[in-house]
Design a protein that fits this description.
- Strands 4-3-2-6 form a four-stranded antiparallel beta sheet, with no helix packed on it.
- A hairpin with a 2-residue loop joins strand 3 and strand 4.
- By secondary structure, the chain is an all-beta fold.
- The protein starts with a strand and ends with a strand.
- Helix content is 0%, strand content 44%.
- The chain has no helices and seven strands.
């Protein structure tokens, strides 16, 4: 079974939580719905929420918190 990919819409720094003191939007193994936020990308001090954009389960993040990402890079995968 192939996994569905969630890609970064823009380059920047990926964050899994809205601040260092809050829990991540999603943890590895969580289910996601299309409108769920899975993280933030910061570009020049501006933060943009990243929606899952699809429904799935068992999310696996392929980038770490505070890791630079490129546009189109796979951020996470989910099972359909």
């Amino acid at each position: 079974m192939s996994r569905l990919e969630i890609r970064s819409p823009l380059p920047g720094t990926f964050y899994r939580a809205s601040s260092p003191d809050t829990p991540p939007f999603k943890a590895d193994g969580d289910a996601v719905a299309g409108g769920d936020t899975i993280g933030l990308i910061e570009v020049m001090k501006t933060f943009q929420q990243i929606p899952a954009g699809l429904d799935g389960k068992n999310i696996t993040f392929l980038v770490d918190n505070e890791e630079p990402v490129m546009a189109g890079q796979i951020i996470a995968e989910v099972d359909p």
